[in-house]
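sanity check this record:
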Amino acid sequence: MNAVRGMVFDLDGTLIDSALDFDLMRHEMGLPYGRPILEALAEVPEGDDKDRMREILRAHELAGADRATLFPGVSDMLAFLHGEKIPTAILTRNSRESTERVLSRLGLLFDQVLTREDAPPKPDPTGLVLICERWRLSPATVPFCGDYRFDLEAGRAAGMPTVLYAAGNIPHYVHLADHVLPCFTRFDALWAELHRERS
């Protein structure tokens, strides 16, 4: 029996590069520098200003979906997991509209895809818990891979092994990760490490 029974991934910045400029988005929306966009937007009262901000966010996300590219090794990694009959899922803070657009354009298929319309945005672990419940799998057997601290915080809160995708410099929140993956072309080493740890 495999020690890893399923895998969940963040999308933007982990599997794909959509080159979203979050500082520009904040500037156009009139939000404070460095403040997480979804959390800041949630505090804005309903009305014309909030509608304007939503449209700015939507335009940026859809443009990102249209230009997004896969990171090296992602296709081979997903093919490997499919061959091993390991179910895969996406949990993203992006909208369902932009997520479905980019997955369709890049030809990516997952057993489950949860967006911000489906569960509270990370670092809330609800989406991860829901994914594991639907699979009827223990979170301890379902690693979560992402590039940002919200991913790692959500994974830890859900009781899942956490994998930090860090293609460049190692970020300061690396201590939240159980494993570090510098490139998906080296996924075989991570796979062996995950199984060795749980054997």
Remarks:
- Strands lie at 7-9, 16-17, 69-70, 88-91, 112-114, 144-146, 162-165, 179-181.
- The helical segments are 22-29, 37-42, 48-67, 74-83, 96-106, 126-135, 149-158, 187-198.
